[in-house]
Please model this.
Amino acid sequence: MQKNLEQAIKYLAGTLKSFTYYPSGHPTVIQPIEMSLKILRPFLAEKGQLVLAVLDKTLVIDRQPFYRTHPAIEELIQRMEERGIQGFTFKNGITSQELIQLFQLLLEEPHTLEKKGGIDAELRARRISHIATKKLTITEEKIEQKAKKIYSDARGVILEIMKQSRLGNVPRAKEAIEIVQSMSELILADKNALLGLTMIQDHDEYTFNHCVNVGILSLALGDTLKLQGKTLNDVGLAGFLHDVGKTYIPRETVTKPGKLGEQEWEVMKKHPLYSSEIVCQMEGMSERAITIVLYHHTQYNLKGYPSLTKGKEQPPGSRVVAIADCYDSMTTLRPYQRRFDPKETLEIMMKMVGKHFDPKFFKAFIKTLGIYPIGTLVRLDTNEVGLVVRINPDDPNRPTVKILYDPEGRELKEPQEVSLTELDAHTGSPQRSIVTTVDSVTQGLIDVSPHF
Model:
């Protein structure tokens, strides 16, 4: 679908260029608009709207960056930026005439448009009801920089919350709510950026990283499940705070490098209850977030802790957090556990579907992460070894990878980022394809953290 949307925007951008040479009723103008609408209408009928935005001089279509350059696209970006337009929302029912009028406005000089009250005023004056300007809540920093700052801030917030819990104080909720809101906004803009950071390995800060990671993964899965607004944020908040109750459990039990004894395990199983009690006391927390935290270790078959009686069901948000929690735990290296490869983790978790995990939610999780999730080490048909750094929703078999080792097995001083969709100029075939994932022994020797 993303590829189709990009093609639709190419048509529209090309039409904008044509306006400088042909009148609005000319076939050269009308035809690409109609071709674009033919692609957009099914999407709009299903989702209701499409957001087209500019972030750091990059076009973002339906929350996915469009990195491939094209003169017409570059002109569209330039005209939007010169007129102070961060984005547009195209709504279901949009007509070719409305698009034509939008292009006419974009062709007006910025100062002329400003004298008329700006593009919003002109859209209203022309009774264009299916196009509206969109203000972005994310700053114009590069997405990667924004993601790293949010991740760092989130780790600081959860560290302080746990510190206050250990001291017997009620933690402040304000910072947690704000940081999860920021995470949610970035997930909606480009989930790849934050998902990549969940692969950072920091043994000393595992507990804090884990809480941040589960919050991010919960938001990403929630977005795939089409959760929105407060519902999505509550799921992310619950994922972020799901383990705060471990501050009530002896540290030596939580960090024990080996299997827990029976009594230790009984104590450990109380942490969802402790977590929910702490979250309940934090001002501004919803009942939904509290409930999600309480049942994040309850299984889809009602077993787990706490278990549920027949006739009840694990709350939907808890099913989201349960999947995110398990995935991050398995893909993290700890003293008592090797790090499982992301793809291997999904294969193991697949065997738990129907018992531990909701089948529908897990299917959405695979869609969220792709066949080769971010952080997967892959061997290519060129014999190069690469790290998956960005998923490709249009073709899960062709993500973006960062080449770490050349065909002879030598580590590159400067890793090369390539899209597996790139074609050979002579044959028209893909330049590189994934052959297999890298074996677990080799994975254990490669620290992927510096590459995110």
